[in-house]
Structure formats: C-alpha cells, structure tokens
Amino acid sequence: MRENFVINPKYSHLQPALKDALYQFEKVGEYVTKGERNVIKKIELNGVVFNIKSFKTPNFFQSIIYQYFRKSKAKRSFEYASKLANFGIGTPTPVAYIEFFSLGLKQSYYISEHLDYDFDFRVLIHKPKFENREEILRQFTQFTFKLHENGVNFLDHSPGNTLITDVGNNQYEFYLIDLNRMRFEPMSFEKRMNNFRRLWPSKTMVKIMAEEYAKLYNKSTSETYETMLKYSRDFQKKKNSKKLRKRKRQRSRA
C-alpha cells in the first residue's frame, strides 16, 4: 500500500510521533466525535493537543476518483486551511494529512491543532437572548465579509462549522472547520448573499447581518436584507420540503 504524508514544516520535529498516531488511530487518543461518516480523535504530543479526523472509506468508484481525478477530503482540508491561514482567516492550525492508496484511495486522515472555543454559531440561533448576541452577529458578518473579499466561497458555511471564542472587551474570534467543500473565486453580490443561506438565520438575525454587510459592501440596507432573506428562506423551504417528503415515505412504508 502506497502512502502520501504531508506535514506543516512547523511540526516536522513531531513527524515520527504523528505518523505513529495515525498508524494506530483505533488505539490512541480519545473520541471528540464518532459519526457514521467521519471520526475525530484528540491526542496530546509534547504538550500540544491535536485533532485527527478520519474520513469515511470511499467506495471503489469514489476511491479511483480520489486517486486520479480529485483531491481527497484530507488533502483539501489541509490545503484550504493553509490558504485561510495565509489570508489571516481563523481556522484550527493545519498540521498534516496522510493518504493510503491501493487500487484507489483507501483511507485518509487530517490533523489540526485542537482549538478550545467557547461556543459555536448554533447558540445564536437557539438562544435569542444570548449575551451580546447582536454584537457577535455583527462581528461574524465582518468575518464573513473578509472571507468574501479574499475570494473564499465556503460552501458549508453552516451553524456548526463556525467556532467562536470570547477574547474579552466585547471582542470575538471566529474559526472555520470542516473545510473540504470550498471554492476560491470572485464573489459577486448574489454569491455573497447566497453564502449566508445555510446559517438558518431568523428574520431578526438577517436584519442585523444585512445592516452590517451593507455598510461594509457599500450597498443599500434594504437590498442587502431582501436578497439575504430571499436566499435564506428559499433554502429553508427546500430543506423543510425535503424533510416532509422523507417523513411521508417513512409513513407509507410503515
């Protein structure tokens, strides 16, 4: 079996220990998440805590695609995190990735530094009275504007994929995770507004974010609000309709 291991030069001194942890992934560390598709475990080496993400083993057709035609999720995660870091955009520090090939991609892992955060964007949706909520939303909008100005179209810009730390004095820092679906391209106004759709914001949240984005983009508040709200509502209707159809199919089978 052939392997491809790439490491951030900053961590080259830990290469043997990191590779050993990857080879023994099932035996080392503690689980952070254990999903059907991906598994994340946490390990500590030389006083530094790392997260190792194991991606779901692809089927035969997908494995061939990943070997010859498309970058693996682990490789994309590492490269995209490195690009974000170069832009000064928050994401857990990329450390390394490894791919194993044998008649296609068999397994891949992505390693990043573990990030201690205070909450994620979901809290702002589920707790309307969350302390300093409006200010956090405004700073989050500034963060998203910075993404767009750097030509970053984060296709999974959803509530669980932004981690937030409170650094004091009403200032917050934002970090993107789950990076393997991303495009680097010029961001038109329509693309920018469409990029907010997966956040599942309420009308109040849209109003706050639209006001802030309009100031940054030199666009009218009304047009920004209406466009952002349209994309958000269209996305929510589509998702709710899909859930309804799924429930109907389940009832018909019962």
Strand order of the largest sheet: 1-5-6-4-3-2
Q: How many structural domains does the protein architecture include? A: 2
Radius of gyration, taken over Cα atoms and rounded to an integer in Å: 20 Å
CATH superfamily of the largest domain: Transferase(Phosphotransferase) domain 1
The SSE order reads EHEEEHHEEEHHEEEEHHH
Strand content: 15-25%
* CATH level-two architecture of the largest domain: Orthogonal Bundle
- The oligomeric state is single chain
CATH class of the largest domain: Mainly Alpha
Q: How many angstroms does the end-to-end distance come to?
A: 46 Å
SSE class = alpha+beta
What would the CATH topology of the largest domain be? Transferase(Phosphotransferase), domain 1
- In round numbers, the mean pLDDT is 94
Number-wise, the strands total 11
Largest sheet descriptor: 6 strands, antiparallel
Poorly predicted runs:
none
Protein name: Lipopolysaccharide kinase InaA family protein
GO molecular function, one term: kinase activity
Organism: Aequorivita xiaoshiensis
Region (Disordered): 234-254
